[in-house]
Structure formats: structure tokens, C-alpha cells
């Protein structure tokens, strides 16, 4: 800006112009700093996420509907199909006593209302009435509207105390693959999207059995959830657009393999768990905290921690953040409407496209 032009102007106008100029500089600097912090955290995080990837055959097996599972020639990419006959899913061949679970996933495009793609850990096959679970579930939408996703946690069969959070995405998950990860240690749980931490649950004694602590397997599924997934079940899966394909690659399983039926877990896991908690992705850096704050305040549209109707006293692991609190009503929903109209209603565990291991073994021969 050429300040000489203001020489002939009244002093009041000069002062006003300078005020607007300073305001512009402050806003621009703040925005740039926030954006730079976000991208710096993403760049730094990629250096600590260098995990060994596995082929499908090395660590996974079909869970159900093997005929709807497509494996690439190098066995590093897996396509899970949903059509009018069935959904499909796969499961890790082993149980893990804590671990880091990750995959790059590309969502189906076109009209995806009623579809759920899930990437989660669970031990429901062994501990049916007191199982643990950590979920990332992707919720499809009508054509032209964005996918959404949610995270959840259950411990010791606490399905009546769901801990859901729901979010939008800052990218189109149907255009390219994006990495989604779950870290699970005795100390904390972190959910990641593209190496950006979006949620952390820190274990504390008050949670008791609600903190997942029993060995779990890794699951991936696609299934028809027309009864609830889109607009509270008003929008159903339209099989005119079938098949719906969710693509999984860059598969990571990093944890201690155990036999879940053992009463006393092997002491061999001690060193593995210690090493896991020493990894870069087990602790959120200051830059990561900034990125998580940015994501949660901009893209989270429901949180059980702010749902005072459901939980008059927030569960013990909830950390009430003032800048988040002011965004939500007592129902846990945003004060301002989003551009899409998704269902915020709580739900039961529902049909997840899951089967037990006995059925999964039968599915292998289909």
C-alpha cells in the first residue's frame, strides 16, 4: 500500500485507513499461522508414522462374504463390496494386546445413502457380553452430499454408555485414499485421520472397566445400514448404483499377538507395549494439539461429552474445553446448523455386518 496517497486526505480518514490496514494484517497473520500450524503438524507427523505395511494374506482373513472381497495381484489392496446380495468384511488373523491399527481407505462414490464402512477393533467373538471396542464408522449420504464419520468406544460390554463423536471431513474421501488409524495403549487411545489426531481418550481410574483392556482383533466391513445411517433411516441404500466398493491399502497391525483365552496374558508383551508407548504417534505433540483443536472446533458436530441430556454428569474421561463447549447445545449438537442434515440420535449397537469367528471360517469357503 502506498501511504503517500493519504497525504491530502483528512487526518480522520488517514487514521481510519490505518486502522483497517492493521486489522487486515492481524486477521491475515492469524489465519496464516493457524493454517501453517496445521500443515506443519501434518508434515511432522508423517515422519513418525512410518510403520511396516502387510499384505492381506500375511495378517487377515475373510470375515464374511468372501465372494464380495477383491484382492489385488500383489495382495496389498483389498476391495470390500456391497451389493444387493451382501456386504463384506475381513478380520485380522490374530488378537492383539494393545496396538496401532491403520489403513488407507477410499470410500464409494455416487449415491451412498444407508451405507456404513467400518474400521474398528473388537473382541465380541470371545467376550460376547462384556466385549471391548474402538470404532471408526463412515456414514454414506445421498448423491451430492458429503460422507460423515464417527468414532466410538466401548469397554467391558458398556454398550449402554456409548461415547460417540461425529464429524465432517475437510476433504472428499471418494477421490483419493486417506489414512485412518487407531492407537490403543494402557495409557491412552488416539484416533487419527491422515496423521492428524482428532480425538484422544486418556485412561483414568474412574473409568474402571469402561476403558478397553482385553485383547482385540481388527475388523473392516461394508454393510447396509438403511435403518439408521442417513437422515435417521429416511434415506435407504439404492442398489441402482451397486456395487459399492470400499478400497483398503497400506494395512498396518503393530501390537503384541496373544491368545485371548489365556487367564494371564503373556509377559512377552511388556516390552512390546513399552515400545508402542514410546512411538511418536503415542504422544500428541504441541503442533498436533493445535491441529486437533482446529479439527474439532471446525468439523465436529456431535459429542457425548457435551450431551447433558444424555449424561447430566459428563463421563470421567471427558475433558470440557471452553472453546468447544460454547459451540454445542445441551443436547451435544451444534448451536448452528450444518449444511447437511444428518441424524444425531443415539443408537444401539445394531447390526454391524459382524459375525462370529465360527461363521467367518465358514465364509472362507464360500
TrEMBL record:
Pfam families: Glyco_hydro_16, XET_C. Residues 341-366 are annotated as: Disordered. GO terms for molecular function: hydrolase activity, hydrolyzing O-glycosyl compounds; xyloglucan:xyloglucosyl transferase activity. It is found in: Secreted, Cell wall; Secreted, Extracellular space, Apoplast. The keyword Transit peptide does not apply. One of its GO terms (cellular component) is apoplast. Residues 341-360 have a biased composition (Basic residues). Keywords: Apoplast, Cell wall, Cell wall biogenesis/degradation, Glycosidase, Glycosyltransferase, Hydrolase, Secreted, Transferase. PANTHER family: XYLOGLUCAN ENDOTRANSGLUCOSYLASE/HYDROLASE PROTEIN 8-RELATED (PTHR31062). Catalyzes xyloglucan endohydrolysis (XEH) and/or endotransglycosylation (XET). Cleaves and religates xyloglucan polymers, an essential constituent of the primary cell wall, and thereby participates in cell wall construction of growing tissues. Belongs to the glycosyl hydrolase 16 family. This is Xyloglucan endotransglucosylase/hydrolase. It comes from Handroanthus impetiginosus.
Amino acid at each position: 500500500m502506498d501511504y503517500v496517497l493519504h497525504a491530502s486526505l483528512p487526518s480522520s480518514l488517514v487514521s481510519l485507513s490505518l486502522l483497517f490496514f492493521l486489522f487486515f494484517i492481524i486477521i491475515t497473520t492469524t489465519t496464516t499461522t493457524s493454517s501453517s500450524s496445521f500443515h506443519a503438524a501434518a508434515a511432522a507427523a508423517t515422519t513418525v508414522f512410518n510403520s511396516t505395511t502387510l499384505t492381506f494374506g500375511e495378517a487377515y482373513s475373510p470375515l464374511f462374504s468372501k465372494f464380495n472381497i477383491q484382492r489385488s495381484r500383489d495382495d496389498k489392496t483389498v476391495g470390500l463390496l456391497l451389493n444387493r446380495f451382501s456386504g463384506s468384511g475381513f478380520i485380522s488373523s490374530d488378537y492383539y494386546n494393545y496396538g496401532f491399527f491403520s489403513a488407507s481407505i477410499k470410500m464409494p462414490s455416487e449415491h451412498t445413502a444407508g451405507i456404513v464402512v467400518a474400521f474398528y477393533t473388537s473382541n465380541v467373538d470371545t467376550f460376547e457380553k462384556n466385549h471391548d471396542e474402538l470404532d471408526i464408522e463412515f456414514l454414506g449420504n445421498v448423491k451430492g452430499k458429503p460422507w460423515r464419520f464417527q468414532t466410538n468406544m466401548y469397554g467391558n460390554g458398556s454398550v449402554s454408555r456409548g461415547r460417540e463423536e461425529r464429524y465432517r471431513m475437510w476433504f472428499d474421501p471418494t477421490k483419493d485414499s486417506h489414512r485412518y488409524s487407531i492407537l490403543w495403549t494402557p495409557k491412552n487411545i488416539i484416533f487419527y485421520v491422515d496423521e492428524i489426531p482428532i480425538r484422544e481418550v486418556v485412561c483414568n481410574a474412574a473409568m474402571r472397566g469402561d476403558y478397553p483392556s482385553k485383547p482385540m482383533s481388527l475388523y473392516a466391513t461394508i454393510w447396509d445400514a438403511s435403518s439408521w445411517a442417513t437422515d435417521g433411516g429416511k434415506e435407504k441404500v439404492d442398489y441402482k448404483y451397486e456395487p459399492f466398493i470400499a478400497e483398503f491399502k497400506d494395512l498396518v497391525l503393530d501390537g503384541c499377538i496373544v491368545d485371548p483365552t489365556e487367564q494371564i496374558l503373556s509377559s512377552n508383551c511388556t516390552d512390546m507395549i513399552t515400545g508402542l508407548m514410546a512411538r511418536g504417534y503415542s504422544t500428541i505433540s504441541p503442533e498436533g494439539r493445535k491441529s486437533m483443536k482446529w479439527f474439532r472446533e471446525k468439523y465436529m458436530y456431535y459429542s457425548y461429552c457435551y450431551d447433558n441430556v444424555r449424561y447430566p454428569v459428563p463421563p470421567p474421561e471427558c475433558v470440557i474445553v471452553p472453546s468447544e463447549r460454547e459451540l454445542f447445545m445441551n443436547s451435544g449438537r451444534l448451536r448452528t446448523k450444518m449444511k447437511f442434515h444428518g441424524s444425531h440420535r443415539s443408537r444401539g449397537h445394531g447390526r454391524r455386518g459382524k459375525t462370529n469367528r465360527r461363521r467367518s471360517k465358514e465364509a472362507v469357503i464360500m
